[in-house]
Amino acid sequence: MAATTYERLKLHITPEKFYVEACDDGADDVLVIDRVSTEVTLSVKKDIPPSAVTRPIFGILGTIHLVAGNYLIVITKKTKIGEFFNHVIWKATDFDVLSYKKTMLHLTDIQLQDNKTFLAMLNHVLNVDGFYFSTTYDLTHTLQRLSNTSPEFQEMSLLERADQRFVWNGHLLRELSAQPEVHRFALPVLHGFITMHSCSINGKYFDWILISRRSCFRAGVRYYVRGIDSEGHAANFVETEQIVHYNGSRASFVQTRGSIPLFWSQRPNLKYKPLPLINKVANHMDGFQRHFDSQVIIYGKQVIINLVNQKGSEKPLEQAFATMVSSLASGMIRYVAFDFHKECKNMRWDRLSILMDQVAEMQDELSYFLVDSAGMVVASQEGVFRSNCMDCLDRTNVIQSLLARRSLQAQLQRLGVLHVGQKLEEQHDFEKIYKNAWADNANACAKQYAGTGALKTDFTRTGKRTQLGLVMDGWNSLIRYYKNNFSDGFRQLPIIMVVAFSMCIICLLMAGDTWTETLAYVLFWGVASIGTFFIILYNGKDFVDAPRLVQKEKMD
């Protein structure tokens, strides 16, 4: 079986069945889904009834069971991102959710309302940006992992060979995955970020690619999913790979990010920063060791860069993380603590060079992956930097962009793109592309986990912290506050005015490092107190209905 999925599809709908027709050259396959029995079979084009209603689609995301029964989710719009070693990469931009049931008469009024709510939740998730796919290339694996595979692996379907951590729709495809004969209809979709750029330095043209792969294990939103689970899966785990393609040679540098791998929580409670709570009865070492055992197997050596505050509410987490690393006593794991906010206070972001100098020798030891134009592996990456802050978003992305630039500097020099003594920072056209791409990566990861764009992207885009950046951070913090407290968790709010009052109090308590930062917080939080009041009034029904829906979801 070739490692491809069908690219051109048509969906034919009858009252009894869905027919998904493969329209690629020479294809005669038709996937048939019985809308009554839910049975999935493979047929041929002549079996499609002429009376069927027909529409083009671009992929099957999968199926899901809600209150009303099964639904088929299909991709209805896509945008070309670029070409990856002659493989086209697409972003899915619109979906359709189709019920197997012809009517909803079998539902009670309460079930009908619940089903409507769950559909709205599903569509909300599908409207989050960042779903990518290729019908001919495996996006879930790094270049280094793909270079070390067997011929049998190459013949597997994309779904079989994919890294299941990064198949976002893996659960939705469970019915198709159980039947190998229909795998060419099963499209693995990556959630995260991909950007591709054709660049030129010294008249030499190369492709520069950035891919962030979000893990589907321990998935969830910011304050509701922290730490690790019993299997060692970390919240907001993202693998980011930077790739260079020049004259047939390919180089990559991989980093990871993920929540502090302990059992801890930080549930929203209307405070600007809820207190993190470390579970006092859990076996932290068991989950911690499971996490790093898997990381070492997949990536090799681990250099942990912990960016959380070393005082205040974040201090216990930093101390616990350091203690766990020390207790594990593994020669494959090194721990670096860097108090980002303390070191860079008063907009002294030039002090990030302290951390870069501290880990420079470690980065040289980890190296990067490089394969020449003949397909020979010239260098292998021996391990990864595993960076984290509290959210693994803003501080983490800044550090990852600096580490990636240092690796890229070495790669481009080795490939002959950069001359001896030349610095990437001096290549202004490329620097603009590089900084904007990493800022866009930060925004994508932040929107998927926290619901807003990232903070501190002014530094990533321009190389310096700005007053406007502080103002924008205040605005994004406001949106995060609202979403994390009132949108993410479906919580009931008995006294609406407590929100507006709380936000006014916050602006008085959050004095910044400068008068400008303080003014920004006062301005935005003050305006927010009024805006949020009306937003909550407008959405009041959601808060009233939420406890019943959450309770029903737990019972189901």
Automatic annotation (TrEMBL):
Domain of life of the organism in this record?
Eukaryota
Its GO CC terms are:
endoplasmic reticulum
Enzyme class of the recorded protein, top EC level: hydrolase
GO-annotated biological processes:
phosphatidylinositol dephosphorylation
Q: Which ranges does the record mark as transmembrane?
A: 493-512, 518-538
The UniProt keywords, alphabetically, are: Membrane, Transmembrane, Transmembrane helix
User: In this protein, which residues make up the domain named SAC?
Assistant: 122-451
A Pfam family per the record: Syja_N
Q: Name one GO molecular function term.
A: phosphatidylinositol-3-phosphate phosphatase activity
Swiss-Prot/TrEMBL catalytic activity? a 1,2-diacyl-sn-glycero-3-phospho-(1D-myo-inositol 4-phosphate) + H2O = a 1,2-diacyl-sn-glycero-3-phospho-(1D-myo-inositol) + phosphate; a 1,2-diacyl-sn-glycero-3-phospho-(1D-myo-inositol-3-phosphate) + H2O = a 1,2-diacyl-sn-glycero-3-phospho-(1D-myo-inositol) + phosphate
Q: What is its EC number?
A: 3.1.3.64
Tell me what this protein is called. Answer: Phosphatidylinositol-3-phosphatase SAC1
Record the organism: Lynx canadensis
Gene symbol here is SACM1L
